[in-house]
Amino acid sequence: MEKMKMLGVVTLYNTDKEHALHNIALYAPYLDRLIVWDNSPANHQDWFDGDSQVDYQWTGENRFIAPAINYALRYAVMNEFHTLLLMDEDSQWPDFAAYRTEIESILREGRDMVFTPYVDGCDHFEITDAVQPKRLFINSGTVIPIKILRQIGGADEDAFPLDALDHDLSLSVIEHGYVAVCLTRHHLRHSLGHPRHLGPFHIFTPNYNWLRTYNMTRSHIICYKKHRALMTPEDKDYLYNEIIRRKFFRIILAEPDKVRRMTALLKGLYSGIRYKIKS
Predict the structure, then answer these.
(1) Pair 37, 68: CB distance under 8 Å
(2) Which of 158, 189, 220 is at the close of a domain?
(3) Does residue 47 fall inside a structural domain?
(4) Which tens digit of pLDDT belongs to each residue from 87-138?
(5) Which of 42, 64, 163, 180 is 20 to 30 A distant from 138 in Cα terms?
(6) Same domain membership, residue 140 and residue 243
(7) 118 in the same domain as 76
(8) How many domains in the chain?
(9) Are residues 134 and 97 in the same domain?
(10) Same domain for 20 and 115
(11) Is the residue at 95 inside a domain?
(12) Are 39 and 177 contained in the same domain?
């Protein structure tokens, strides 16, 4: 039987060398090739010198995640890879080899789908089966067959360079007639940012800067507009309460750089509402 080739792509941004190389070493040996997409101002090519399995791409600026996915998609098509693993620099794999084995076993049965692990720190649903449907997935740890990624058109770099990209990919998979499943026996260790208690009221906040505030607000509004038919009451609640209302009060009551962040929130709202969805 033909060997299934798996490509991986990991994005870096101003990361510590020991931290990054430790996390990459947990899964890179079990891939057929790894693309390292480095958004850092400094070039870290020397970290990977001598590793013939790594394709290192330095941007010199923070171009976020979507361009990395599209570069990996083009690379996969040209070099006949079957699947693509998406990774974040902070994620840690205890058992990637077993995860890959289970994915390929399912694909060989002719069941085309997207795969995710159970993500510690993000997932909180009750585990009832080894393979469970998952409507929304995060990028890190997800494995997408190239066939599916091509059909959904890859990543939308203009609308979702970073934030809401995972939601857009998840809902695009559904719109094209596929499903995502969580292989619950395999756990990925992942954390979303570095939240802190700030201000006189010690409010718990992710403390995103003004640029992240703008992009997060804009992209989530665009995602809601683009996938309106699939949106649930929970999705609407998340957009209104977490992305807009709570961010507003976090800026006012706790976060620093209030003027720029509030301006960014308002500009993100305006830009998202005005954005024209591509047909």
Answers:
(1) yes
(2) 189
(3) yes
(4) 999 899 999 999 999 999 999 999 999 999 999 988 889 999 999 999 999 9
(5) 42
(6) no
(7) yes
(8) 2
(9) yes
(10) yes
(11) yes
(12) yes
- Tell the residue number behind the tokens 């998202």, with chain if given: 272
Same domain for 184 and 109, yes or no, is yes
Pair of tokens at residue 240: 């209104």
Domain coverage including residue 33: 6-189
Show the 3-state SS of the chain: CCCCCEEEEEEECCCCHHHHHHHHHCCHHHCCEEEEEECCCCCCHHHHCCCCCEEEEECCCCCCCHHHHHHHHHHHHHCCCCEEEEEECCCECCCHHHHHHHHHHHHHCCCCCEEEEEEECCCCCCCCCCEEECCCCCCCCCEEEHHHHHHCCCCCCCCCCCCCHHHHHHHHHHHCCCCEEEEEEEEEECCCCCCEEECCCCEEECCCCHHHHHHHHHHHHHHHHHCHHHCCHHHHHHHHHHHHHHHHHHHHHCCCCHHHHHHHHHHHHHHHHHCCCCC
pTM attached to this predicted model: 0.93
The answer to whether 75 and 146 are in contact (CB under 8 A) is no
**Residue 279 located in a structural domain:** no
39 with 160, same domain? yes
Q: What's the token pair of residue 162?
A: 């970073």
DSSP bridge pairs for 34: 8, 54
